[in-house]
Amino acid sequence: MAIKLYQYNASNYKAATDFNYPNKMQSGLFLHWWQEGYVSMDTDMAALLNPLNENAFTKSNADGVAAVKAMSKAYYDEQCVAKVAETYTIYEELKAHRTNDTAVLTNVGNIVASVMAERDALLDVS
Fold first, then answer.
1. How many percent of the chain have pLDDT more than 70?
2. For residue 10, what are the CA distances in angstroms to 7, 80, 119?
3. What is the b/e burial string over 58-72, where b = at least 16 CB atoms within 10 angstroms of the residue's CB?
4. Which of 44, 57, 103, 111 has its CA 20 to 30 A from that of 126?
5. H-helix segments, 1-126
6. What are the structural domain ranges in the chain?
7. By CB neighbour count within 10 A (0-12 exposed, 13-18 middle, 19+ buried), where does 46 fall?
8. Residue range 84-101: average pLDDT?
9. What percentage of residues in the chain have a pLDDT greater than 90?
């Protein structure tokens, strides 16, 4: 299952409920709505939805990825903070910066990188 970023004309489709969906779908299909105009879904889901919606979904490009990243920045910043907070208190993180504790700082960087990797997995345009 390859997840890709697709775009659609947001002036024709204002909400997810404006699209036609099949009566039955197999389990395991993936669909993630971003801001108006963008959706991440696996290629099997796109193959189901496109014929029902006059081929409304087209694979996005680097501009689409940049738009989604900009729009979702605040959300993913919060996710990074929450994931780091599962391991370190704010005082431990500040101490690591103050004392240049490379072990803690490296781990914080790895935690942030894992959150960004999850996001980026939804933004493939190849």
1. 99
2. 9, 29, 22
3. eebeeebbebbeeeb
4. 111
5. 43-52, 62-85, 90-99, 102-121
6. 1-60, 71-126
7. buried
8. 97
9. 79
